[in-house]
């Protein structure tokens, strides 16, 4: 009724003010879509948000993201409050970066996706896990893991300015990642697709 319309207006106004990337009518559309998704989700979040399954289905159908591991990582970066469900604020802010983010925002987002254990570095192991997941391994490949290991070494040589720094032990810091991406923008999604395709 009137109350929910009033609440909707307040919500849209507030999100439009806080969003750097969407105008008012876009925010309205995103909030409506959010409500639709919440209705599809399991009810135990009581209208506060929607769960991982609905999120994955939505990103899969809207943006063609198919990799299970990547979709889980995208969910985690959206779910900043770490509750296991996406709130309307997390939804609008997350999509802002995903769809309209500046290069700076996208670099931070991709780095967070690839830093599986959240320690501030992308390690050899993390690169290996992600590349192994995102590459289509042909059944004829004798030693697919060896090929992935070679790719990891190539990526490290290309991206780690501190490659010969003994302390780094083959890890990429955000500074390394940022420097590499600024020099070669194709490296933004070097370890697997986690942004929507251009369409």
TrEMBL record:
Listed CDD domains: EFh
Any one Gene Ontology molecular-function term assigned to this protein's record: calcium ion binding
Tree of life domain: Eukaryota
Domain EF-hand: 66-101, 102-137
Pfam families noted in UniProt: EF-hand_7
Record bears the keyword Mitochondrion: no
InterPro entries, sorted: EF-hand-dom_pair (IPR011992), EF_Hand_1_Ca_BS (IPR018247), EF_hand_dom (IPR002048), Recoverin (IPR028846)
Keyword list, A-Z: Calcium, Metal-binding, Repeat
Residues in the signal sequence: none
UniProt keyword rRNA-binding, yes or no: no
Alphabetized PANTHER family for the sequence: CALAXIN, CALCIUM BINDING PROTEINS
Protein name: EFCB1 protein
Source species taxonomy: Eukaryota, Metazoa, Chordata, Craniata, Vertebrata
Gene (UniProt): Efcab1
């Amino acid at each position: 009724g009137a109350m929910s319309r009033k609440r909707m207006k307040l919500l849209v106004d507030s999100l439009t003010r806080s969003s750097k990337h969407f105008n008012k009518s876009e925010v309205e559309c995103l909030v409506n879509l959010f409500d639709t998704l919440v209705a599809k989700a399991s009810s135990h979040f009581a209208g506060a948000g929607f769960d991982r399954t609905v999120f994955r289905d939505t990103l899969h159908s809207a943006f063609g993201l198919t990799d299970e591991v990547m979709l889980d990582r995208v969910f985690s970066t959206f779910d900043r409050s770490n509750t296991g469900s996406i709130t309307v604020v997390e939804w609008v802010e997350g999509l802002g970066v995903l769809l309209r983010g500046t290069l700076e925002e996208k670099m931070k987002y991709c780095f967070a996706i690839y830093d599986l254990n959240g320690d501030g570095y992308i390690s050899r192991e993390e690169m290996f896990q992600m590349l192994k997941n995102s590459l289509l391994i042909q059944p004829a490949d004798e030693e697919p893991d060896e090929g992935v290991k070679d790719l990891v070494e190539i990526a490290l040589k290309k991206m780690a300015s501190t490659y010969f720094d003994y302390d780094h032990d083959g890890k990429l810091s955000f500074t390394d990642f940022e420097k590499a991406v600024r020099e070669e923008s194709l490296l933004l999604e070097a370890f697997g697709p986690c942004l929507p395709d251009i369409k």
